[in-house]
Amino acid sequence: MPKSPTIRFARPTMPEGGTLVILASQADALPAALPAELREGLAKAARLAKFKGKSLSSAEFVPAGSVGPDRLILIGTQGETTLGEEDWLKVGGTVAAKLKGVETAALWAEGVAVGDLSQVALGVLLRAYAFDRYKSRKTKPGEEDESADTALSLAILTEEVEDAQGAFAVAQEVAAGVTLARDLVNEPANVLTTTEYASRIAALRDNGLEVEILDEARMAELKMHALLGVSKGSPMPPRLCIMRWNGAGTDEAPVAFVGKGVVFDTGGVSIKPAAGMEDMKGDMGGSAAVVGLMRALAGRKAKVNAIGVVGLVENAVDGKAQRPGDIVTAMSGTTIEVLNTDAEGRLVLADALWYTQERYKPRFMINLATLTGAIIVALGNHHAGLFSNNDELADRLLAAGLATGEKVWRMPLGKEYDKQIEGKFADIKNIGNGRSAGSITAAQFLQRFVNDVPWAHLDVAGTAMGSPTNEYNQSWASGFGVRLLDRLVREHYEAR
Predict the structure, then answer these.
(1) Chain-centre distance of CA 199, in angstroms?
(2) pLDDT tens, 250-266?
(3) Rounded-to-integer distance, Cα 224 and Cα 396, Å
(4) What is the mean pLDDT of residues 365-381?
(5) Rg of the chain in Å (alpha carbons)
(6) Which of the following is catalytic: 39, 52, 54, 272?
(7) What values do phi and psi take at 457, rounded to 5?
(8) Strand 210-214 relative to strand 239-246: parallel, antiparallel, unpaired?
(9) What is the spatial distance between Cα 284 and Cα 191, in angstroms, rounded to a whole number?
(10) Taking a C-beta distance cutoff of 8 angstroms, is the pair 440, 411 a contact?
(11) Over the stretch 192-233, which tens digit does the pLDDT of each residue have?
(12) Which of 313, 333, 404 has its CA nearest to residue 85?
């Protein structure tokens, strides 16, 4: 794995050697401290590149003399409107891309607000991520081993050093949460089994989280037969992992996040086509976001009580596997006719949601799941589907998505869709009537297990994995949801 960049903050002084990156809203917005010969050379480079300061545009200059930096890069910060949180994140990602392979660099950021600088720094960290731990790198005799990459050391130059360092300390913890989520989704299923996943969650006790792990026997005592039914075909035992962060006192009801953790999904007896099945190692992307979020909240000492619950199973095929037509009883007492074993995520979430609302009485519940291909048909890969029984919670999620760039789009719920999941031989069935409204009927199914708790369901099938890369993410696994939900908590649910 490449080493993460080292970022520090310092007061503006012209560096000797290395690479200097200058954030500029105009071609002539150059630091006064820049020596005349460098100013002239950089201005010429800007003219040749037709650099006018447009956001994410760039111009480069390599001076011939020995004074000051060895290389200068201009990166534009002028938008059609004031740059927002994601815009600055993209600036940071662009900086990281320009500095690939560089060991020492400085970023001249005079005049950039502290909060914006923290997003630039976060963008640098997120763009530098790569998952290559399983690549063997052999070199010829005498050649340098490229696997021993030297991490970038970046000094961000600002007059507000102390405030910038404080803001970055928070951003670093969010980056750690996103990185953890990406790592989990990128791992192959033969490594990230249910038990290995549970062990990695248990290790988060070192970060201050309380962790409780329920095994198969305990879940059977709790009558979680919807979740347990999914795991019957796998030699990997199921687990329900509960993470708790207590940052707001014992009297404060927690906020709760629930994730689908199907570590691999063959589809079960209703087996998937072979083409693309390798991507089903990412069918635990919702749970990864919950784990990453809990890591971030604990790391930045968020002033909130939060619960993270993830159901871990493998949906495999053997003689013991659940069959189409089987009927299971969920923890709530609801009976479910399993007509398609590939609609397994909602069965896992049914018990996880019921357990969470019954035990913790949360202020709200948000579940995340790579639940349906239908949501990709509806929204593509740039928005997650949002379903909710609470307008305030939904509106807050929409706003957090616009701010962070982890965008969501609200989809409908309604009694007319409820009729499509009424069972013939049981209370409900796990699929609707045919292909129409598939993501909606899945949400209607989940709503049966939340009681009156304010709730939102995020269908992240199109955004957690294989989504389009951008300036701050070049990974197959995006870590979608960590920044979105951290922003939601920070804006609305932390003690002031």
Answers:
(1) 20
(2) 889 999 999 999 999 99
(3) 32
(4) 98
(5) 25
(6) 272
(7) -115, 125
(8) antiparallel
(9) 14
(10) yes
(11) 999 999 999 999 999 999 999 999 999 999 999 999 999 999
(12) 404
Identify whether 424 is a catalytic site residue. Answer: no
What does the pLDDT read at residue 99?
Answer: 96
Residue 397: which pLDDT band, with cuts at 50, 70 and 90? Answer: very high
Q: Which of 346, 396, 407, 483 is catalytic?
A: 346
Would the pTM of this model clear 0.85, i.e. be above it? yes
**Per-residue pLDDT, 188:** 98
Distance CA 449, CA 260 (A): 14
The predicted pLDDT at position 29 comes to 82
For residues 185 and 310, what is the distance between their CA atoms, to the nearest angstrom? 14
Structure tokens of 126? Answer: 């997120």
Rounded average pLDDT over 356-370: 98
* Cα separation, 63 vs 40, whole angstroms: 10
On the question of pLDDT at 357 being above 60, the answer is yes
140 CB neighbour count, 10 Å cutoff: 5
429: annotated active-site residue: no
